[in-house]
Amino acid sequence: MSLEAFLLVAAALFCVGLFGALSQQSIVMLMMGLELMINGVVVAGAGFWLRVAPNADGQVLLLVAITVMALEMAMGFAVVTALFRARDVDMTDDAGDLKG
Amino acid sequence: MQTFAFWALAAAAVGTGVAVFAVDSMARATFSLLASFLCVAGLLLLAGLQYLGALVVLMMVMEMLVMAVFMIMYMMNPAGLMPMTMVHNRRGALLVSGGLFAVMAAGILLVRWPERRGRPPADPTADLGMALMGPKMLVMMVIGIAILATMIASVVLAVRGGRYGRAEGDGAGGDGANGGGAG
Lengths: 100, 183
Known about the structure:
The complex is a heterodimer.
Chain A (H helix, E strand, L loop, with lengths): L2 H21 L3 H25 L4 H32 L13
Chain B lengths: L1 H19 L5 H21 L3 H25 L15 H21 L13 H9 L4 H22 L25
EC number (chain B): 7.1.1.-
Organism (chain B): Actinomadura yumaensis
Subcellular location (chain B): Cell membrane
């Protein structure tokens, strides 16, 4: 498994997630796209750890990325719940108060 | 054998990732995402990162189960009994993501990557543990504080309540900033 192989898989996952984040109207589905993007970052980090610098720093960085993934999901669900409670909205198009 | 497993897991990870946005059912989308995470955990295990691979498996199984509950709560079509299209600007999103993939793939294949410095440790889990309990302790402490802050913030955001406690009814008795009934 070369570094390029890891990075190609990571890029594919990141771009699939980006497609979801840009195209989905549902906030929960949008968050799924963000999760896939961070998933790609994790794969790229594993590739760099294995093929460039196999020391503890890379593993710590991956641990931070995985933690960010969980925290993003928790905050996302809380925001969706607050938004739904206040405005009965679960779609991005209906939650455009700050749109210019 | 390892190369075959790598490409099989990679194809499955990307395929199930695509399926998240292609299936009709919200429940299926959630479990497709879970499958993608499990395949990525397999890739981590293949790379020798046993602890992080196991962490992804454990964390994502729980996270996707919570997500399935939220899906059923908020979405109108959790079982996928009818086709659903909840997308906007599909063509633009395809163009942006496809173009970005082409640029990234070209960069990945054209860039001359550095040679590996050192060899992977015999026990990467022990290496990570020693780093977290030693020179990287600050990172672990920041992660802990970030998790605590997220727990508090998510409860504050999600709970129906006012400044002085739980709001009564649909916000009639509460004066909270995030109180009030839905709809």
